[in-house]
Amino acid sequence: MPLEVKKLKVNYKTLEEFKRFKEYGLQELSMLEDLEANIIENDSDSPFYGIYFGNKLVARMSLYQVEARFDRYFSPPQDYLELWKLEVLPDYQGRGYGTALVDFAKSFGLPIKTNPRVKSNEFWEKQGFTSVHYDMQRDLGENPLVWESKQS
Amino acid sequence: MPLEVKKLKVNYKTLEEFKRFKEYGLQELSMLEDLEANIIENDSDSPFYGIYFGNKLVARMSLYQVEARFDRYFSPPQDYLELWKLEVLPDYQGRGYGTALVDFAKSFGLPIKTNPRVKSNEFWEKQGFTSVHYDMQRDLGENPLVWESKQS
Questions:
Q1: What is the mean pLDDT of residues B7-35?
Q2: By CB atoms within 10 Å of each CB, which of A40, B19, B51, B143 scores lowest?
C-alpha cells in the first residue's frame, strides 16, 4: 500500500490531532489562536504535510521554502526547503512513514536543510543527509543537516 | 553554599564531560575536531559556562552575543544574548543549578533569547521569560522565549 502524503489544512480537527505529537509548541498554539480570532480561515493551507492511517494523523512534518537571499547553507546561495517537526507517532514507527515524508520533501527538487532532534542521526544518514560544518554564529544551538539532489 | 558559575575552557577533560549531557551534538564534535587538528589551542575559551560539583561538571549552558544588526526579536534592535544547551545532569536537578546559570546570563545586562526544549516552559516562566509572537519565516521550528531586564 503506497503511503499518501497530504498537505494539511488548518482546522480544529488537525490542531487537535497535533496534540498527540511531542513537538507541539508555539507554532501550533499560534495557529490555534489565529483560527479562533478569525485571522485565518478554517481549512486554510498550513506548512504541514502528513500521513493518515484511516482517519488518524500518524506522521507529519513542516516545510517552508526559504529564498536564496536568506540562504546561509548552500553554495551558491539558492532557494531551499527548511524541514522541521518530522515526527511519527510511536505505534506507527518503523513502517516507512518518515521516509515517505522525506521522499515527498525531496520531490520538490530543492535542497533541504533540517535541524533534527538529538539521536535521530541514523535515520537522516539513511535519507542521504549530511552534517554541515558547524559555524557558531550561524548555528548556535542547531545541528544542521542538509540534502542536495544529485542532479544539481 | 553559593553556586559558582565558571567559563569553561576547551580541553579534552571538558569535552569528555560534555558527553554526559543529552544535547551533545555538532557543536561539541566540531570543538573536538578543532582541538585535535590544533585549529584551537587546549584551554581556549569556549561559549560554555558551567557549574562543578567537586570536580564534576553537573550543569552547563552556552551563551553568544548577537549584534543588534542581526536582531529580529527585540524592539528597537539591540545586542542580545542567545542562550542554548542549558542542561543540568539528572541527579543534580532541583537544586538551583539551572536558575544560577540563568541568573548569570542575566547579569550581563542584555536581553536574552532562547529556544528551549519542549516541556521546559514552567522553568522558563519562573525565570521571567515570555513567548514571542510566532513568526514562521523567522522561527520555523523554534519556540523562542525572551527576557528583557526591567531597567531597560
A1: 95
A2: B19
ipTM: 0.91
- In A, residues 32-51, which contact B (CB 8 Å cutoff)? 47
How far out from the chain centre does Cα A4 lie? 16
What is the b/e burial string over B33-51, where b = at least 16 CB atoms within 10 angstroms of the residue's CB? eebeeeebeeeeebbbbbb
Nearest CA in chain A to B144: A26
Contacts B139 to A, Cβ<8 Å: 26-27
Chain B: closest CA distance from residue A6 (Å):
20
B39-85 pLDDT, tens digit per residue, is 999 999 999 999 999 999 999 999 999 999 999 999 999 999 999 99
How many A×B Cβ pairs under 8 Å?
66
| Nearest-CB residue to A136 (from B47, B115, B142) | B47
Sheet holding A130-131, edge to edge: A5-10, A44-53, A56-66, A80-88, A112-114, A145-147, A130-131
Confidence of residue B103 (pLDDT cuts 50, 70, 90): very high
C-alpha span between B43 and B20 (Å, rounded): 20
CB atoms within 10 A of CB B118: 12
| Window 53-112 of B, Cβ < 8 Å to A | 62, 64, 82, 84-85
Q: What distance in Å separates residue B145's CA from the closest CA in chain A?
A: 10
- Bridge pairing between strands B80-88 and B112-114: parallel
Res B151 pLDDT > 60: no
Res. B112: pLDDT tops 50: yes
Q: Are B134 and A82 within 8 A, CB to CB?
A: no
Residues making up chain A, counted from first to last: 152
